Input
Amino acid sequence: HVQLVESGGGSVQVGGSLRLSCVASGDTISRYCMGWFRQVPDKAREGVAAIDSDGATVYADSVKGRFTISKDNDKNTLYLQMDSLKPEDTAMYFCAAARLIYSQFLLHINEYNFWGQGTQVTVS
Output
């Protein structure tokens, strides 16, 4: 099984940038579809961005043009570059992995079975 550890969260001003990292261990992420999700208290976790094993990406409409998902298979690390941050981007961000997901379901939370503990992002 793959284990995931996120980092890079913090507090940033509106319009600023952050880069989140998710380091994997126990298996190579090149085998997996990987995603970033976020959650605020009392709301459901939502998909932000995902990348499949071939490198194809998908984004939630709310972050298109501002966020970029990428991965470095050699470093076994997933990234989320977040630019032009807004207060509504404030959330706990989680990375997740799954071996096989059909492309139309890459942002569906139920498709993922490995999760990190999350990293908090606060935009104000």
In short: DSSP finds no helices and eleven strands in the chain. The CA atoms of residues 32 and 99 lie 5 Å apart.
